[in-house]
From TrEMBL:
Similarity comment text for this entry: Belongs to the fimbrial export usher family.
Protein name: Fimbria/pilus outer membrane usher protein
Localisation: Cell outer membrane
A UniProt-annotated Pfam family: PapC_N
SUPFAM superfamilies per the UniProt record, alphabetical: FimD N-terminal domain-like
Signal peptide, first to last residue: 1-25
Predominant location category: membrane
PapC N-terminal domain sequence ranges: 27-175
Membrane topology: Multi-pass membrane protein
Species this protein is from: Providencia manganoxydans
Gene3D superfamilies for the chain: 2.60.40.2070, 2.60.40.3110, 3.10.20.410, Outer membrane usher protein FimD, plug domain (2.60.40.2610)
Protein's UniProt keywords contain Protein transport: no
Sorted UniProt keywords: Cell outer membrane, Membrane, Signal, Transmembrane, Transmembrane beta strand, Transport
Amino acid sequence: MMFKHSKVRQAVLLTLGLTTWAASASEFNTDVLDAKDIQNIDMSQFSVAGYVPPGDYVLTVFVNGQRLGAPRDISVYAKKPTHKPQSQSVCIPINMLHMFGLKSSSEKKVTTSHDGQCLDFSALTGVQTKIELSTLSLNVTIPQMWMEYRDPYWTPPALWEDGLNGAFIDYNANASGTKEKGGIKRVYLSTNGTTGVNIGAWRFRGDYNATYQKQRGGYHPQETHQFDFSRLYAFTSLKDAASILTVGENYFYSDVFEAWQYSGVSLESDDRMLPPKLVGYAPEIIGIANTNATVIVRSQDRVISETAVPPGPFRIQTLDSGIRGVLDVTVREEDGEEKKFSVSTASLPYLTRPGRVVYKLVGGKTRYDGRHMTGKPVIGGEFSYGVSNAWSLYGGTQLNGYYQTIAVGIGRDLSTIGAISLDMTQSFADFSEERLQGRSYRLNYAKSLEDLKTDITFAGYRFADKEYRTLTQFMDQDRTGIIPRSQKENYQIYLNKYFDDFNIALNYQYSTYWRNDSQTQYGLYASTNILIPQLSQYNANLSLSATRTERDNGFEDDSVNLYLTLPLYTGHSITFSELYSRSSGNNRYNHNMGYNGYSGTDNYSLNMGYNHGQEIDNQASFSGFYSKDMSQANVSANASYVPHQYRSIGASINSGITATSKGVAFHRSAHGDTRLMIETPGVSDVPLDSGVIKTNHFGLAVIPNINSYRKSTASINTSKLPDNLETLDSTTDITLTKGAIGYRSLSVMKGEKLFAVLSLDNGKNPPFGASVRNVDNRELGIVGEDGVTWLVGVSAQENLFIYWNNKQQCQLTLPENLTASSNMLLLPCTSKIAISSISHSKDK
């Protein structure tokens, strides 16, 4: 095996490039080499184009340029008899056949050799294999005529990995304490996350959340606490069906019906398993925090996100694209004040690839208030069928003994104009005293282009008559006897526009109800870059954020924030903000100036403000916010002081721990989803990707939030690698099923780098081009002129071996102290030793 970073080897290969060779073998003109002992040159390992000595290798396999997962054991055999000098064959294990993406008719033509241990592609014309030891890779070229459809952004199911068996806990924890005027003290603690166990292809999960609040002093001291698993469930990916099977407590997020909770079983298509065409709409949360605040997002009473934010506008864009329905958002300020609003997630028109059927099937009992079940069992489902490139049909049903609903719809791709869908839903609800039946109509329009600088828009309209009931509404009314809040009309518009120097996002939602007041919500976010040469040589950013909620009963809640960020120099800026808010007719104003800093993994801000308005005392405020991205966690801390009002401190941590048979590692939270464990055996503090995540004392690290069913790449950050470390395979990729704990090992050598002069027993030097290897048969250097050799990854008193003519010739031992002298080491290599048991040949 060769070491790809060897400088001497590069010189040798450059020299070889000047030679002339025949088809199979080469006669080197050694006169072009500037070497005194011109006869003492070993070119045996370079004398055949692409020649690889027979033996066993660990190589990364590429097919038509696409990597096939982790490195694999590959054998090279010498052919007998042969008419070509040093002819050889590459043995690809038979269990790799299904990974090549061949047509079924092509697979049938592939035979085996070497007693059924190796694949024989000779029946497929044009198949070629080539080993590159400099990159430790095997490149297989297969003509497209033998291959199934391939998409560079999609990995065939045969290459998906279920990962390791293991267990984990992911968590997000927040804590805050406030002391108010009058001696009132408040403490707020919260945590939420997911714990899980992976066994084979099955994932067992529990989503949990807990809160603790305590108030001391004042007239109403109180203490409350709560802990609950919002759902306990298990699921597995069915690769052949491109679906996910789920058992237990779950949420049925539908593109046709409203979301509902159930305990039972479901089978759902997952479009991430298919070649990408349409990307699911991922909801985002836009708002404003007046102080250091916590933004809590709930879906069906389940906490799906809890994020600590500093004062000013915030934008949360990390929610799962599979979430559907109404999201309840709570902005909890540091003084305990809470602002609440809701966001309806948009659903793109239902479009499906031609000939594909996308479906969701469910059976079970509905749930409410956590783990309480009600009513008779429900069976239901939905589907979408791609009739052609332009048309799709979709629909669904939900049935139990007293409730039935059916929906039918059609989707149309309008090409450059966008896409549109129209559907109708009919419901039948049998109560003890009456039978209600009603209809709901919905129209959706969307335009979504891949270029980020183009429009991404969504618009929707829905009308439901007075007697229409959703499944949840029926269950609640049947259980309580209370007529639910029934929606009549709903309008939604979502717009995002990206220009070169100006961005705008707009959302509008108007809802009317049969027995309640109508409600309107507006949201606007706009930003642009401007140059203010009198203040800074860098472009400043000016942003506007505005929200409004109003109801027919006269309630209005407004918030407008103008935010200017003025860069001082790289990573540092000053901010100015003007905030206007109005709630229940009271106007309030906040003027704020802040200093922000960013340095790699650290973010901090210092703010000074002045507040005034109706029904509040004029007051100054001082606050600070600090966050840090670490290998094992994301942490933040904040503090605030409002003279004569209150003072507050808070902190949060986002972390997790994963345990497998390979070891245990702390890491940033993966939110219960897919993750990748990287091992650098025996070597710690190896930086990965951006360099923030590093392997722990045991050589382990976990990269969170890996894409499911899509190829993910992980690499060692060689620019931040310590001087005493060298990597042989710095990059790897993997495609994992949902919730998997993936594993990859990346070889890293720890040792010194030095120049040495090698000599033999007879006083001569080893041949030019001879290979220096360690006990693991890893090449650490190539002998140069006069025995001068650049060695890497060596350690004190280590035994090394020199090879030429494809066999071990002698052994040398490094001194006890490699750094004692800056001079070139003189290292004798003696042949008076027992030949190592390491073998490089296999002859069958």
